[in-house]
Amino acid sequence: FQSSCQELWVGCRTQGLYRINRNGRINRIPYDPSSPNGISSEQIREFVEDQQGNIWFGTFDGLQKYDPSTQTYSLIKQEQRPGGLSHSSIFSLYQDVQGTIWIGSYYGGVNYFNPDNNAFNYYTYNPDRSDCLNYPFAGAMTEDKDHHLWICTDGGGLACLDRQAGHFTTYTAGGPNSLPHNNLKSICYDPKRDCLYIGTHMGGLSRFDRKTGRFYNYLNHSTKGLKEPNDVIFQVSFYNDQLIVSARNGVFSMNPDTNEFHLLYDGYYYQTFTIDPKGFLWLSAGTNLYSINLKHPEEVKSFSLPASIGQFGISKILKGNNQYLYIATLGSGLFCYNEQTQTCINYTPEQNQLLSNYCYNLLQTSTDNILITSDRGITLFNPTTESFRSIELDNGLSLSSIINGCGVWMCSDHTIFIGGTGGLSSFLEKDLNKEYPKPKLYFSSLSVNNARISPDDKSRILTEGLPFVREINLNATQNNLTIEFASSNYVDILNNTWYEYQLEGFDKQWSLTSQTSLKYTNLDPGDYVLHVRQKGNSLKMRKAQEILLQIHINTPWYLTWWAWLSYITISISVTYFIWREKSSRRTLAILRQSLFSLTYHQILFNPAI
Length: 609
Description:
With 609 residues, the protein is mainly beta. The longest helix is centred in the last third of the chain and has 45 residues, at 561-605. It is flat. The protein starts with 7 loop residues before the first strand and ends with a helix. Residues 537-541 have low confidence and may be disordered.
């Protein structure tokens, strides 16, 4: 393989790797799997060079990379996680126009990745490794003043990620100085006292003092006769030097210096709340929302989400910087409530570009976009343009699933962490804005009357592949069509997966879809034009592509102009024949009548006859 700097890389079947510089000097790369200065396998198969000048080569033991800036080698092996290499034995490599590297493996199929598209970091679950979570479920999170990330797990206690060192410390229940329970639901940080407040399920409220490393469990010090948070805590939040606690027995505020609780609101299970800059506490219960003035808790306002939407539950509420209240639901997508106009807008996949109707968590990013987690991945919503861009599971995010209770957090450096059921993923929003060579949108396949059409098959519809065809001609019976389209974009994880289409001559208006297969049945003979375009409403506002395919369905022979001319000619001929026949019979009848009359008169007036 010849690199861009005119070096030759020589891979041997079983004798390792050689490098020949431009002067012809041959260097054998040492075999040293444990060192960054050597190769991990002596079976070298294939090479590619990425756009940064790194040399990638396939080996028996994985995909290796040579970094010319550091003159070091690194190895990627098979990983049992979403987004990992499916097999370590690499036989073929190819780089496309977008810089994506395609990997053909011995027994793991085809993988692909882009070296420049490294926006996401992934922290997997492995209790035996200090650089991994000790428990798979990553719930609520917060950050302390040293920029450590604290993560609640739903059964594995509390995990602390030292982001600089890249290792985790775990705190679990059991013993005199420990958590009251390993099932944690919420967490918040008090920077003034350098303490963490942790809400547990069945263990009540707990406080962790980072200076002393000790836990204080409030149920163990509860005062009889006073109403305090019970054993089930839904959410905790620190506001204006007060701790706000939502528990199964009500909503409370607590003075952190005196540990005294004050009941704010009683009645329902308020599993999620948010506090706006004006000091109003917003609670949710069922499909109802309540607003409480924290300075005057007796001032309570309430309103209900539209009941006509159908059955759903509220999973998270968030007060945005634009005074909108954002409401994530389980079953009805996202609601935006404008307090000033008292109007509510509902966003769903059916009407908009929301990824799913089952939304779990909300976060306002540094660019004022609203991040929404769902069962299909994450969505970034721009409230100004009302546009959506989504990243689906396993498409860069590297999380196998997200469920209700999985956490989201944005750190002080704007790094966003997303919790899943099998680990933790992080990214910077600005890294999602990388521009790649513009991909192509094209029609990919055609089926007629449920039969797949190939170039030069018996149907003779296509003489070349559909992506290169601009027009198709069909006979009258070939009027049930399935047309698929695709994009050559394998890089942009924020690629717009929503499209609009219209069959000119049949559809009255454009239709929105996230599918890439269009079906039309029983089309009448005539000329049509199929238009497909990307949904232009996006966070990047990139100009949308549009493609078209002309479709001509021929009129059946019995409906052609010459057939109609024949029909008319035959009709006229038959009509003329009938008229002539009737006219001849009528003339003959008149002649017979005349002859009869003449004969009668002759007999009457000539007796001799």
